[in-house]
Design a protein that fits this description.
Helix content is 77%, strand content 2%. The protein is mainly alpha-helical and 497 residues long. It has a domain at 283-497. The longest helix is centred in the middle third of the chain and has 32 residues, at 159-190.
């Protein structure tokens, strides 16, 4: 075993231990510890990416304690896992750096160590979803992710946050129950929980044709369960409140990372447990296409109708999740490549919108209504420019990663049957037009002279500005470095199954 193959295990364990450490430290110490741990996880992921992202490289497995199944647990890492192990801690670190003022002031100041403990638990769960090769372990950390995310929502301790957290927990626990039921049925049929063993057994069962209906039901249970937790239409009702009721860092983390952890688990189940061909035979991909089309339109229409700035950003997440599931519904190959690419771009863009948008709200006196936000970007021109970069990316304008993901989705749609291609291209065009309408309206309001003119300018936080600048740089880099990024994603997907 090579020394760097221990990085996935130690990254997860370090985050779990840090959750306990942060809870007993003073606020300043917990802040430094949490940021340091995220920095180490980011460095470990970058090292793995440099090694595993090379052409011709192969994934590796790490058997914890050298005990085989069913007594031991297994970790697997390849190019895609390493890429996501850079994305998760990187975005969370930016969210904590930019959202530090809101955490360090008011009623939240004394509870900041507990907040950072929740973030450490959430990061451990996200990394486990990326690395774990055991389906039940994925479920365990799925619940850790659900509980810690719910606590991040109610950290604001307002009536709105408490209501949003309650709705989040109820619906997400329904999704967890459906997922667990699918896992139990898989274990009943095969007697395995390791993904490779499940794949071999399920392929043998599928070849006999005896359990076709049972396997279709299991795939549907797992798909619907994770779709609920990912806020795919029509299971999205919890998302707008959950993504707009917490402190700024919570909104950024929840919308840009948590839903992506669930989508990543769905991709792993499709690739490593069932296999792409078995998923296609179940026709679940057709259901995902319909839900994705509807979500792309409905989420955008809801974003247009709302009169609140933060809620508009939250509603746009419903539409953007539809883009990711559209790629999954289009199938293995180019569809999954487009889905993963948009997952990366959306994570950076959404975090940037929430974090820079919070600074614009402060410039407007803390108001969240569009009428009071007039001229906010003139008071904070740097944050206004950064927010515009995030909006341009989700619209899909040139020089942003959002353009690449939409081109990939459109190109993959053309490889399908004429009805699917026609509907997909029409929905893509209509959704993009709706994106332009609500983001253009918002930008015009933010950059308008407003009642107080542009003379009053807000103060800039170096940490917050640097964090938002890194997210904007990631969005631009995903356009200018699209080819090498696509090569890593393609390599990772080939190692995935």
């Amino acid at each position: 075993m090579l020394w760097w193959q221990n990085i996935p295990f130690f990254s997860i364990i370090l985050c779990l231990l840090s959750a306990a450490v942060c809870s007993v430290l003073p606020p300043r110490g917990a802040r430094a510890w949490g940021r340091g741990v995220l920095g180490l996880c980011l460095a470990g992921g970058a090292l793995l990416l440099a090694i595993l992202g090379q052409p011709g490289s192969a994934s590796f497995t790490f058997m914890m304690g050298h005990f085989p199944a069913p007594w031991g647990n297994e970790i697997r890492a390849g190019a895609l896992e390493a890429l996501l192990a850079c994305l998760f801690p990187g975005v969370m670190l930016c969210a904590l750096l930019s959202g530090a003022p809101a955490l360090s002031s008011g009623r939240q100041a004394s509870r900041e160590p507990q907040y950072l403990s929740l973030c450490m638990l959430l990061m451990a769960a996200l990394l486990s979803q990326a690395y774990s090769n055991d389906l039940f372990t994925c479920y365990v950390f799925l619940e850790i992710m659900t509980l810690s995310a719910g606590a991040l929502i109610v950290f604001q301790n307002s009536s709105q946050a408490l209501a949003a957290g309650m709705r989040y927990m109820v619906l997400n626990l329904v999704g967890s129950g459906l997922f667990l039921l699918g896992v139990v049925l898989l274990y009943y049929l095969t007697g395995h929980l390791l993904m490779e063993n499940l794949f071999v057994s399920l392929q043998a069962l599928a070849a006999t044709g005896e359990y076709h209906r049972s396997l279709t039901i299991i795939i549907a249970l797992i798909t619907v369960g994770l779709s609920i937790k990912s806020a795919l239409f029509p299971f999205h009702s919890w998302a707008p409140d959950a993504y707009s009721s917490g402190v700024p860092s919570s909104n950024a983390i929840l919308s840009s990372l948590v839903s992506k952890g669930y989508i990543l688990l769905l991709l792993k189940v499709y690739a490593r447990v069932f296999g792409w061909d078995l998923v296609l035979l179940s026709h679940v991909d057709h259901l995902l296409l319909v839900f994705a089309w509807a979500g792309m339109i409905f989420g955008s229409l809801a974003a247009i109708r709302t009169s609140r700035f933060t809620r508009m950003i939250a509603w746009s997440s419903v539409a953007q999740i539809g883009y990711i599931f559209l790629g999954i519904g289009l199938g293995a190959g180019g569809g999954y490549q487009a889905a993963v690419y948009h997952l990366l771009v959306h994570s950076c863009s959404k975090a940037l919108l929430f974090l820079s948008g919070e600074e614009l709200r402060r410039a407007a006196g803390g108001s969240d209504t569009f009428a009071d936000l007039a001229g906010a970007a003139r008071k904070h021109p740097v944050y206004g420019a950064l927010w515009t970069v995030g909006a341009f990316s989700l619209v899909g304008l040139p020089f942003t990663g959002g353009l690449i993901s939409k081109l990939l989705l459109g190109g993959e749609a053309l490889r399908h049957s004429p009805p699917v291609a026609l509907i997909t291209l029409a929905v893509l065009a209509l959704s993009t037009l709706l994106n332009v309408l609500y983001f253009l309206r918002t930008m015009l309001i933010l950059w308008s002279p407003g009642q107080e003119g542009s003379s009053k300018r807000g103060t800039l936080s170096p940490l917050g500005l640097g964090a938002c600048g890194l997210l904007a740089a990631g969005i631009l880099a995903s356009f200018f470095l699209a080819q090498p990024l696509l090569e890593v994603i393609t390599l990772g997907l080939s190692q995935f199954s």
